[in-house]
Amino acid sequence: MKDVFARLASDFLSAIIFLAIYLITDNVVLATSVAIATAIAQVIYARVKGSQLSFMTYASLALVIVLGSMTLLTNDPRFMLAKPAIAHFAIGVIMLKRGWMLRYMPPVVAETVPEYVTTAGYAWSGLMFVIGAGTIAVASTGDLRLWAFYISVVAGGAKILAFAVQYVVLRLIVTSRLRAAARA
């Protein structure tokens, strides 16, 4: 679990840096410049360390550079604020692949209720699209505090709630099916 949070922190480091500097200084140019430099430094550090970099790492770097450049050219932070939406849309598209979630499930779940796991995968995809659309809507206001609240509390909370609901529902369904099979 610690690895997951470390990976998330690494993936969102430039956005976190941007947010912190912008909230402290109210200087969009400084915040954006440091966010771009941070993203580039992360990739250089990983390459020097010999780490294998994924497509998503390079895609994230490209987004930071492109959206950061747009932010610098327009002096408008909304471009940087929109970056998480693009990531949510991309993940939502990936989650449209039938059965993607099966490999993340314990064998008892994958073998007992694969159709429910597939449905849950589509529900997760829908959630990513909804969160992405919400991010765009909130980013378009330009209100950084609202955006920070949305990204951390609303989007994060929605994912935690969805995970909890999925866990409970799949557990109940699997238990019910296993009991029915034992009686038969």
Automatic annotation (TrEMBL):
Transmembrane segments: 12-41, 53-73, 79-96, 116-141, 147-170
Keyword check for Membrane: yes
Nucleus recorded as keyword: no
GO cellular component: plasma membrane
Alphabetical list of InterPro entries matching this protein: YciB
Keywords, comma-separated and alphabetical: Cell membrane, Membrane, Transmembrane, Transmembrane helix
Name of the protein: Intracellular septation protein
Natural source organism: Bradyrhizobium hipponense
